[in-house]
Amino acid sequence: MTQTATAPPRLSFPVKLVYGFGSIAYGLKNQLISSLLLLYYNQLMGVPAHIVSLALSASLILDALWDPFLGFVSDGMRTRWGRRHPLMYLSAAPFALSFILLWHPPAGLSDWQMFGWLLVFVILSRATISLYEVPSSALAPELAPDYHERTGLLGYRLVFNAIGAALAAVLAYGWFLRSTPDQPMGQLNAAGYSPYAVTVAAITVVVILVSTAGTHHTIPRLHIPPKRRTEPGEILRELVSTLSNRNFLVLLCAGAFIGVMLGMVGGLTLYFSTYFWELPSSKLLILMLAPLFATPVGALLARLVSQKVGKRSTAMLLGLGGITVSLSPIVLRLMGLMPPNGSDALLWILAAAQFLATSGISGAAIMLTSMLADTVEENQVKTGRRSEALLLSADSTLQRLAQGLSVIIPGALLTAVGFPEGAKPGQVDPQILNNLALAYVPTVYIAILIAAGVLFLYRLDKEGHERNLATIRETAAVTEAIAEADPLPAHVGPVGVQSRPV
Fold first, then answer.
1. Predicted structure pTM score
2. How confident is the model at residue 484 (pLDDT cuts 50, 70, 90)?
């Protein structure tokens, strides 16, 4: 199937809805693995924090290498169900099984045996959800080639991601890990994690299958790649030419520093909520629901602001603003300017900060993904290949490598400041908590400042994107005319122009 010479029709609302719906799966998974896994294995299973962090770090590094390989395979697949959908259908059952086993370690294991169990099943959980997430993400540039429609479609994706995270929070802090008279800190209730994980796995399977089946009818309009040579040298040349795009490399470097930030935030947020702010699970639920309402605001902000100042400036403004707000309650507490723990005023200040921070950060995330998607057509003009999955997954590679290395930091910090295992909220030395905060805040903020600075080097704007789309359409028209005039075999040139062999 060749690219059509005319612009594709606008996406219908049901397609946008069912495509975005699939991100619930990723939101559910992230809420448990990113927020609860370190706490569960360290505080409830009794595994030292640095050992847990080492396993999480290794899993992220391997995941970072797996995703680009998966993207390269997906980009070149030629099946009757297209390049993306076979892998998406395949992901559901293996993910459910590996995810359930992750939260069911056998009793009586030593620390290093527990490390092995955690490592194997967190790797399998990440790898199998990637079978869905990588090809699903790669659908966005094809479904929405228009500069601003693409941003809107990615907004649906992030909103449903927030819905998944909110659903996970409701299931956790409203049900399985809810506060009880015997255990007001429900997040420390070990018995609740097993049924919670099974429920999340079951919901994830349904979400993946519904979203994949719901976009199945779009397969005939999607790109069919030409047959390609599979010699190692040819594959390497194709990878190098695809990944050497200047704007892509800028986003790759910025993503590395964002990865450092995410590693720190993901590892320590629940520790701050539980021990620094002493929030029971009933109040944690309120904070966890903030993204559900804030993410649509972020999507709207991203769309409106980017139409005025462009995608790059919008990403920088919303990202820096969101991180500044998210860290401000900790800074104010260190300055002695926050209400005491347990007060209603503290909860609502934290909830307001969470809402504003999530609005900015989610808007910035949409912009960065949209900027990355714009490099797909720029790369197609230069190489003649559509490599959505490779580009989108490779961008996350350096970010995840950095995140994988930085995930070691939370465990190392907890060990360095002398944070006790099996700690009781309200009984941890305040100086230990202050030392943790003093290390956490500047590390996170410096990482996001560097990421914002790197984005100054990104140069692809709306006009450049529209020129790329026009070039691709013109090329498709020429290709179709040549095919009609001359039935001889053709080869593909730099922008997909097919010409007769000499």
1. 0.67
2. low
